[in-house]
User: Which sequence fits this backbone?
């Protein structure tokens, strides 16, 4: 069970997470040291705008998923729910690396800030080098202190962190704005014409493109607010607004800091390109264009404001990422990707174990030096971009799967997806657009990260007792691709680095050679992965099919056992009553009142047994897919009147108030299957009466609302104030053989199939049914069906066929064919009560002989059973129809059989019969069928 964090995240606090986690130390260095040299002021400005738009699209995709899963938190959870747990794992693994490395990058940036501003202030104690970077004990001690203090505050000082986090984030953006306008007003004016693109032989479009493709790096972390959504915060519906504002704030941060060096040039430089060229080979503040421009323009005050702004950025990033990464680990624990202990909360509701683990791991990082951290930060951009690809694919698939009519989401998702994929290609492929975007060591770290992810996934899969993982071949093929690709690129880059001292011509030959080898290696790897993917997909598909068959077989066996258990009980109950009251009736035939009581109870028990048999057979036919819908004209007003006639007697017997009403019914004549609609409403109405006590109330209503084309949405509501249901039983009331224990305790009979049949029929009719109920207060079932209107011609034909007719059976003779003596005895008695003369045949062959031997027109109709020896009813009918005498061949033949399903009626008509009456015999239906047959014969 997921636990909610005991915290309310407000709008400003949520914005602080999204903004502060995205804009840290790098936002003050990259603009002057990377953006401007690569694209110039104009190219950088355009690229940053496009990057902001791209990330906005990704943010809308994330927000869309969050709204669809409001009780969950975190992008990897959304991805897992949409694309599968395996993809959710890869997204979680990527997100974890991204958040941790951003934390490490910002924590170790404090040392860089000290060196640039205050020089060797903390360069004391032991000293060593890592990849050419000098590491000093004093600087390591400071970094570890910052990491520990921030971690302890995150664990124990929730209120302090909440306030500081928001205040520092607001100070960050406010100080950036102050510095920008300060430089703009006080700085040395640059000629407007100099605000152009960089000039190093690359088309301007590629310059802009290179900046835009860094969008994941610029805004990485803005999605972190989604991990705070399970902390009792604001409604998810406001996430669009929060994301939009945070992206705008991030855009302003990068946009202003990029223009600062171009707006205020130091003395002695005519253009920003001259200044950047000189700064790239310098040391100290002069090496950082943003710092030096602020310092030369606003003096020490400006520099102090900039330092304060950077401190705000570092600490808001640390506070935010500690808490967000802690919640990421909690959700991974809930998703069974981490041990349960990591998901534990402390007494104030914070993920104390997770944050402590992060703090311990982070405290080790400073000893590896800033250069090594820079390589990891390179990889984070790749990992975050992978997550953004997943998010856009997930939102697109979610919109398609849920038939979301908002095509805007699909378009936004596709744009974000394309941009994210382009960013991965841009970052991974060296020399594709310009120089390599990743350091040689970064490729190695990417390979290590991918391999460690594969190993950890193996651990998760091996310990997955609930079989949640191992369903996607695509996920680990993607992971394998990254392992092989990054390994090949690492070897390529190392080879090129080793040839750095060669003459230019030889170096170019080396680059072409190793590049060709890399392409060949990747082509081979790609083909092998494609084959492996095909093989493993086939193997997985076969395994799933085997598992599915095994589960279906087990389910069938369990269903069969459950069925036999329920049927044994439910059939014996009415049979016990029938046999018991029959014995009582036979033992004492002298008391008419007792005899009448016994016979009524025998009839009632027989009706219950028949309903049980019908339900079982109907359920079997539905599940086997044999049910077919007929297309009939139905007058809903007349239909409700008929329903009232059927149910009112039952309701009156319990002194219940029984009300049927309709409102706004403009189109009463519709096309539907009358029998199936009757089954649905009778099931609901009879249940309402059954489960409502004496003097209760049952209401049935019908409403019509406009629908598309020549159809309307008809809503039937069956409401009662009876015993009601618990929410647990209401959730499974439409499952077969589910019986309410409370009803069983009260002795209310039922098969447990009525609601299941109702649900299945409505599924076939493309309708829906819902229920609201409360124990001891009653239930309300709502049925919605979209039904087309009947045409005027169909209405006219319907009314003519259903017009009342006077039926006189005197002088009519029928032939009754049935092989069961007791069936003939019952049928003869009923037919003679109706005034008919009856002759009998014991099978189909005898029936044919009698029809053909008697004079033409001797029989007015033939009542034919279907399952008989020597010749069944269908064969006998065909033999009669093939008679050479037209009068004999056209005698009306009505099926009177226990074959009572819709296809049985269809088969009877196809065999040449004129009508169908099901056993047990419904006398009203028999009268209608015989009347129609005699009328047709008279007309002829």
Assistant:
């Amino acid at each position: 069970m997921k636990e909610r964090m005991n915290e309310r995240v407000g709008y400003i606090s949520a914005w602080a997470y999204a903004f502060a986690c995205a804009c840290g130390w790098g936002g003050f260095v990259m603009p002057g040291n990377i953006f401007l040299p690569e694209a110039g002021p104009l190219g950088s400005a355009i690229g940053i705008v496009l990057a902001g738009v791209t990330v906005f699209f990704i943010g809308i995709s994330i927000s869309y998923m969050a709204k669809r899963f409001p009780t969950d938190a975190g992008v990897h959870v959304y991805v897992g729910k949409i694309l599968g747990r395996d993809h959710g794992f890869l997204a979680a693994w990527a997100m974890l690396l991204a958040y941790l490395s951003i934390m490490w990058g910002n924590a170790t940036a404090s040392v860089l800030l000290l060196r640039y501003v205050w020089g060797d202030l903390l360069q004391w104690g032991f000293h060593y080098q890592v990849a050419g970077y000098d590491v000093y004990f004093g600087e390591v001690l400071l970094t570890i202190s910052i990491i520990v203090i921030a971690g302890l505050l995150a664990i124990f000082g929730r209120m302090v962190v909440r306030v500081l986090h928001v205040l520092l984030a607001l100070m960050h953006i406010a100080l950036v704005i102050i510095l920008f306008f300060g430089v703009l007003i006080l700085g040395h004016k640059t000629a407007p014409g100099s605000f152009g693109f960089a000039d190093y032989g690359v088309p301007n479009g590629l310059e802009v493109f290179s900046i835009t493709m860094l969008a994941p790096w610029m805004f990485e972390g803005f999605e972190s607010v989604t991990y705070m959504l399970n902390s009792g915060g604001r409604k998810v519906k406001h996430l669009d607004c929060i994301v939009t504002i945070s992206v705008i704030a991030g855009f302003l941060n990068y946009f202003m800091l990029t223009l600062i060096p171009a707006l205020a040039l130091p003395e002695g430089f005519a253009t920003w390109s001259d200044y950047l060229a000189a700064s790239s080979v310098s040391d100290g503040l002069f090496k950082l264009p943003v710092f030096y421009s602020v310092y030369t323009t606003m003096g020490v005050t400006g520099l102090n404001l900039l330092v304060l702004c950077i401190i705000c950025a570092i600490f808001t990033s640390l506070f935010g990422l500690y808490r967000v990464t802690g919640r990421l680990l909690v959700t991974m624990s809930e998703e069974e990707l981490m041990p349960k202990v990591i998901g534990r909360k402390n007494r104030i509701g914070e993920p104390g174990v997770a944050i402590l683990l992060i703090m311990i791991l982070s405290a080790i990082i400073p000893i590896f030096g800033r250069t090594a951290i820079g390589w990891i930060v390179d990889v984070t951009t790749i990992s975050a971009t992978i997550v953004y690809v997943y998010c856009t694919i997930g939102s697109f698939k979610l919109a398609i799967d849920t038939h979301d009519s908002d095509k805007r989401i699909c378009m936004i998702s596709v744009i974000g997806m394309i941009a994210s994929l382009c960013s991965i290609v841009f970052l991974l492929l060296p020399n594709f657009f310009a120089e390599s975007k990743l350091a040689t060591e970064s490729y190695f770290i990417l390979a290590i990260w991918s391999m460690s992810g594969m190993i950890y996934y193996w651990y998760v899969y091996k310990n997955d007792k609930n079989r949640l993982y191992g369903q996607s071949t695509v996920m680990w093929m993607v992971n394998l691709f990254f392992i092989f690709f990054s390994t090949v690129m690492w070897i390529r880059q190392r080879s090129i680095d080793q040839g750095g001292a060669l003459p230019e011509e030889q170096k170019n030959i080396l680059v072409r050679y190793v590049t060709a080898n890399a392409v060949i290696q990747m082509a081979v790897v790609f083909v092998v992965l494609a084959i492996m993917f095909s093989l493993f997909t086939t193997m997985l598909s076969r395994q799933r099919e085997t598992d599915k068959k095994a589960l279906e077989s087990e389910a069938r066996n369990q269903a069969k056992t459950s069925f036999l258990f329920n049927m044994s009980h439910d059939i014996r109950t009415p049979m016990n009553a029938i046999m018991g009251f029959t014995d009582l009736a036979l033992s004492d035939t002298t008391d008419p009142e007792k005899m009448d009581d016994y016979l009524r109870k025998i009839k009632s028990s027989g009706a219950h047994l028949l309903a049980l048999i019908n339900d079982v057979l109907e359920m079997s036919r539905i599940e086997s897919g044999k049910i077919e819908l007929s297309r009939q004209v139905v007058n809903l007003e007349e239909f409700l009147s008929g329903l009232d006639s059927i149910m009112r007697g039952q309701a009156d017997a319990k002194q219940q108030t029984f009300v049927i009403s309709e409102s706004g019914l403009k189109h009463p004549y519709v096309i539907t299957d009358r029998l199936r609609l009757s089954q649905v409403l009778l099931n609901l109405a009879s249940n309402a009466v059954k489960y409502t006590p004496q003097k209760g109330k049952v209401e049935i209503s019908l409403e019509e609302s406009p629908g598309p084309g020549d159809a309307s949405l008809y809503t039937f509501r069956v409401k009662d104030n009876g015993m009601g249901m618990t929410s647990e039983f209401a959730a499974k009331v439409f499952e077969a053989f589910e019986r309410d224990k409370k009803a069983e305790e009260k002795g209310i009979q039922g098969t447990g199939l009525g609601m299941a049949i109702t649900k299945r029929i409505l599924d076939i009719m493309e309708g829906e049914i819902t229920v609201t109920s409360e124990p001891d207060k009653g239930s309300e079932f709502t049925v919605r069906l979209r039904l087309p209107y009947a045409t005027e011609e169909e209405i006219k034909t319907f009314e003519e066929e259903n017009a009342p007719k006077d039926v006189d059976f005197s002088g009519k003779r029928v032939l009754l064919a049935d092989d069961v003596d007791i069936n003939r005895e019952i049928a003869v008695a009923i037919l003679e009560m109706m005034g008919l003369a009856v002759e009998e045949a014991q099978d189909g062959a005898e029936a044919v002989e009698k029809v053909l031997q008697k004079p033409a027109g001797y029989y007015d109709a033939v009542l034919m059973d279907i399952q008989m020896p020597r010749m069944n009813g269908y064969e006998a009918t065909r033999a009669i129809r093939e008679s050479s005498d037209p009068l004999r061949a056209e005698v009306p033949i009505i099926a009177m059989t226990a074959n009572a399903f819709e296809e049985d009626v269809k088969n009877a008509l196809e065999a040449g019969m004129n009508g169908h009456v099901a056993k047990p015999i419904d006398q009203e239906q028999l009268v209608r069928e015989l009347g129609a047959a005699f009328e047709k014969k008279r007309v002829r």
In short: The chain has 30 helices and 14 strands. The radius of gyration is 41 Å. The first helix runs from residue 11 to 20. The longest strand covers residues 778-788.
